[in-house]
Records
---
Amino acid sequence: MSSVINRRYLIKGVVQGVGFRPFVYRLASENNLKGWVLNDSKGVTVEVEGTKEQLNKFVKQIMQEKPSLSTINEISLLHEKIIKHGYINFSIKKSANADTREALVSPDTNVCHDCLRELFDDNNRRYKYPFINCTNCGPRYSIIFDIPYDRPYTTMRDFLMCKECKKEYEDILDRRFHAQPIACWDCGPKVELLNNQGKKIEDDDPVAVTIEKLKQGAIVAVKGLGGYHLVADPTNDEAVITLRKRKKRLAKPFAIMSETITEVRRYANVQPDEEKLLTSKERPIVLLKKKKNKRFSDNVAPVNDHFGVMLAYTPLHYLLLHNNFDALICTSGNLSDEAIIHRNETALKKLSKIADFFLIHNREIYTRLDDSIVRVTNLGNISETSLVRRARSYVPMPYKFIRGLPNGLALGSELKNTICLNRQQYFFMSQHIGDLKNLSTYESFKEIINLLKKLLQIEPQFIACDMHPVFYNTKYAYEQNELPVFPVQHHHAHMASCMFEHGFDSPAIGVIFDGVGYGLDGSLWGGEFLVGDYLNFTRKGYFHQFKLLGGDKAVEEPYRIAFELLYQIYSKNIYDLPVRFARATKEKLNILSKMSDTNINSPITSSVGRLFDAVSALLGVREIIEYEGQAAIELEQLSSGNDFFKLNYEINKKDKIWEVNFLPMLEDLIRYKRENQPTGKLGLSFHLTLSEIVVEMCNKIRSETQINEVMLSGGVFLNQILLKNCYLKLKANKFNVHTNNSIPINDGGISIGQSVIAGHRFLKGLRN
Ligand code: ZN
Ligand code: ZN
Ligand code: FE
């Protein structure tokens, strides 16, 4: 008989607040092992006694059968002794505070099946209780302000548990054992319905009244998990139009929410990968192809062949939808580009002119989170999932790099901002924060840096930021005067984010197509062919540069870019072209030509994103935009069929760098437009020619560098036609092609790229 030994293990990862200790307890009891388990600031520590075989089996079972919400990053053996301690049972010890805090906070999670069953069971004491949750589900990251994850460190601290809840909370065999947000009708948070004056609507069932109001066409601000949604009935055209008018948002699609996949199938096509994402515990918004029926108002997602759809994820959502609506519009409760509103007072103040009613509650949201957005792109025989916006339910899960780096803080890009903190090889990217030019978003940016530093106990040794000198986050970086600052070039960061994700450690070719990013020469880059690693890069090629007449104004009014490009080609003959320059008068166009002649307020750029805008305007698809990317999105949707023209272009070497001259493509497009060729065919020709350019450039770079690995990154690659064609053609040319999946391909992924580049530079003792 083998002798009894005593072992102590430390388990790290998301192991707190996810039912890990009761799981270990049950497992130990089943195996008749003695000892104890406790939560501390590093994770979960287990001391256990048994034979070697028993203990090995026990650890294996921990790995294999761990609770659904947990993630194990590592299990380390702290000691092994032959002497047995002689425990008489297995127990759960009180949480201990250790000096370092490495326990990970779980993301917020959708309500689980067990809780849903109780929610709709009229014999259950939590029947229809909007805050039902358990150890396997409910709010986490959004309500915590310190660790360890215990009720006093969450916004649930204000609610005193009733006797019944306390019994469940303390019963190791209960499925609510140590569920920190545990609550019920007697002791937990409550919902209230208010009118837009903030006056309470007295009724025993505010949810039922809300449903009535929604059916009558009202717009209701509903407090959710990470913030407020503006909710309306998508079948009610008048309600949808009213919401658009009040939100001053005429075109950008509204997201919609359904209870189950069955309802979704009534109005959208759902592929297997998309279904998996929709029903995943993260419950992101998934972009789905619309069905050609008219279930909803055209104004839900006008001029768009996709719906952004998510499934219900809080009990309150289920209560609103269940047997009432196929779907509800659930768009972020905010004013234009401001941060999503998460506090009751702010909601009442800022949304009172948009919402008719407010369904609020008194469980405070500590940190705000937008809904995450995902899309699936079909690439021939495989499909790629890309996270367009990473926020609720994904954060704060870390990404693991191939090696440990010094701890740092990266501040991301200014638009679509995220920040990233790393502890050695674990990189914690924040939720989508937004456009820092907004005061509320900038406040949120600072709050999130402080919160993550505290929750993760990371003291950064350096700061990484964008090279753009006037970004708010760049300024913030230089204000933190104790730490060295590493400015990182924007497109290098995009490239590194893609290399990071695929565990790369050798030089690669980066094809980075983007809006604009500050270049090494001070011009705005955005159509770049780079070769580099995590330390450095060289610019091997770029798109012909052009002027943005009026700077940011040219981004809002793409016809200005079309005008400038055609003016370069046709000069004064531009007025005879078959192109409509929005509603601009001849005088206005004369001003533009003068701007171009004199270079007033006309920064130059190589941006492919802006080139898409120009082509969209040139083809008469979209001349003035309401939301970012609109011109390119509408051009992509129009571009279809199998019929296309091969457009002309030139690639020339200029000062040892390849320059793609796309002006001949535009001349061709004008010629075909004169022939009245269909716009969809011309749009497709533009996409396909771009992919030819990518392949030709990569071939040129490969013959100079022998590098075979290509990273496709930058927001322009959200364009599925472009991504698919570049991917397949590069593959056919025997390149290994990679693109971002779980790190956003747009500027939401910049912070992690900055982090990893600055970390390598810091390690090498390099500056800048
Ligand atoms: Zn549950
Ligand atoms: Zn209770
Ligand atoms: Fe970018």
---
Amino acid sequence: MSAPAGPDRFHLAGVMGFPIAHSRSPLIHNHWMEEYGLKGAYVPVAVPPENLERALRALHPLGFAGVNLTVPLKTAAMRIVDRLDPAALGIGAANTIVVDQDGTLEGRNTDAFGFVASLREAQPELDLSRGPAVVLGAGGAARAVIYGLKEAGVPEIRVTNRTVPRAQELASEFGPGVVAHSWEEREESLRGAALLVQTTSLGMQGHAPLDLRLDALPADAIVCDIVYAPRRTPLLHAAAARGNRVVEGLGMLLHQARPAFAAWFGVMPDVTLGLRTRLDESLPR
Ligand code: ATR
């Protein structure tokens, strides 16, 4: 038996992580539930990794449509679910679980979609096939960004990371067109780039700033930081000051939530100014 459909249905979804209190996902999804007139709730659930399998298997009997997953559960879930979508397989992490009618679990990844949708929203005339992209960092966020850029047809992706073997691993995994550079080469790698994407924790509130001179970056390149607290990082300030167009990290956070909501509740929600403002106001200044 699955949860009843129709007007009596209380729509349930949530986000599992450990810790989980900081998550902005409840704000986003509960906003959409209200906006689209769905009775229900999206709740934060603290689940330590050792309880993940039992927690996921409990979703169907509890009537949950699914959950989002955050650190440190995104990779652990890969081994538990019954199916994975191509993005989760390619990125190596699942940020969304969809519970099917028969109780089987599908792991999906919406981060690459969120990143590319956010870029396209901020820069509608951007032609991603136009030139090389530089990606700073080689962690989980970089994997989603590289997957999204490859899917979108970016011809060359230069990955530069402090720990070079991690960048090399991504280059060999994501195949032709993805090239590893050392951290020392990060400024030189900007030459001729059409897009720069910052995926490390540098520049985030409470972290060291990113040390990067932008002199070699073409004036028409787009600069994107996936850090969203602060909303405008020192990198984005520096890029805007020299005339580059910039894309803030808040958009990725908002857009990655859309396909999950659609998969659970059948409505592809919009990112409105009202939602963006609410989310922005919830973030530390
Ligand atoms: P996420 O999943 O958010 O990407 P992660 O896997 O911990 O998190 O990756 C963090 C990224 O920030 C990595 O690329 C990391 O570089 P290393 O692979 O060398 O650790 C990068 N990073 C964190 N602190 C850094 C610093 N002080 N200087 C340069 N890069 C840093």
---
Amino acid sequence: MANLSRRAVLAGLAASLLPRATAAQPSSLGAIADARGVWFGSAIGEEIFADPAYAAAIARECRMVTIENAVKLGFIRPEPDRFTPEMADRLVLWAGEKHLAIRGHTLVWNDNNPDWLKRMSGREVARLMDAHIAETAGRYAGLIQSWDVVNEPFYPGFGLPGGYRDGPFFAAMGKDYIARAFHAARAADPIAKLTLNEAFTEEDTDLGRRVRAGLLGLVDDLLDAGVPLQGIGLQGHLKPHLPYDDQAFGKFLAALAERKLPILITELDVSDEGFSGDQAAVDRAVAARYRQFLTTCMAEPAVKGVITWQLSDRYSWYRGDWYKNAQRRDHIHRLRPARPLPLDDRLRPKAAWAAIAAAFEGRGL
Ligand code: G3I
């Protein structure tokens, strides 16, 4: 960690865990959430170094940040024998200096892996996973508030028993890769909270219901086996054009909360592609969805944090190559740039900002 001043980051981390200064602060989503005992934050990436105004908006609005891509396996290990933590180091240092709690995302994901991993034998993948977790989680030990140790364990579409997501790690170790990854992460970083992160549970679709059931069963199995699981991440990529049921999701949150683990909404955004009308009408519809969903989340005391997947439409993943490829695959043709987040392209608060603030303010009333 030559170029990462551990002392600076630890100072920032320590400060981020202390109560905020009581002096009146301009209202921000982070301050409003903080006043109700909830973390608010955003995903961040290299854009904050090229866009000082955006970096300032993140520092103002957030109390926690998730590293969107820089510590993912394909980014930090472009080749089996090449480790490239430079961007991750810069992001961890920046966040520490801003007194922001830091989420690591993600150590193990059966999707979005580099080709060199897919060419490995099962035995090599298992060894690589252990070594990758030891090196990556070990590098930032003590600096990360929580790790998404395993991302998206389920995807019933693969047709595997239990609805697990297929990929190099499952192929190599079956579902045991999950417990193994958590034990490896605990050995590498005794301080970080270890989280299991999942998608789709917000949808009241067959997929969403199957993932919810699978996740509850997996959490019980991991806890019964003494696996160091300390939190659950529900991504929250809301798609209003798909079925959603407040009561059903609230019951799922309550069932999850019975496991006595903190719940984070880890990747919140609201796709606007199903809404029509002028920009103001679309923004209002997006805001209404934020308010509806977060009101349900805030009614569950186990929900301790809400992280949006970037803060400004300008940097939404819905505008990136990854999603554009998915659009082409699914024959989705957007008519306008995505507007899924609390700040617009010019970093101005949108109706969604006020909706999120109102949901936080309604907590515990
Ligand atoms: O930065 C490079 C650029 O230099 C290069 O020219 C370009 C070539 O395509 O790639 C750029 O990197 C892309 C990166 O996003 C930044 O835009 C990667 O190819 C692309 O794979 C990456 O996509 C990310 C995706 O996960 C896959 O890792 C998205 O930004 C990120 O928002 C998305 O986030 C996921 C969560 O990790 C898990 N939950 C779902 C969520 C949305 O899909």
